[in-house]
Amino acid sequence: MKRLIISLPEDDLRWLKRQSRLHGRSMAETVRLAIGAYRRQSSAAPYRKVLRETAGSWSCVNEDSQQMVDRLRDEWHR
Prior knowledge:
Structural class: mainly alpha
Number of strands: 0
Number of helices: 3
Helix content: 55-70%
């Protein structure tokens, strides 16, 4: 693990100290957890975009999900 020196605005530093104390963690651990959460959120962003863009597209289909799955699987066996 590498060490890093960062500068934070006073209000962010106060928040970091409060959160760390509240959860019984060091400030470094809180920062590591926050970076991990940010990375997971960032990597999921493209998927969320696709979900937003395709939301409601199922409503134009005139069959329920099981019927559609069965129909698609039948195509595999032809």
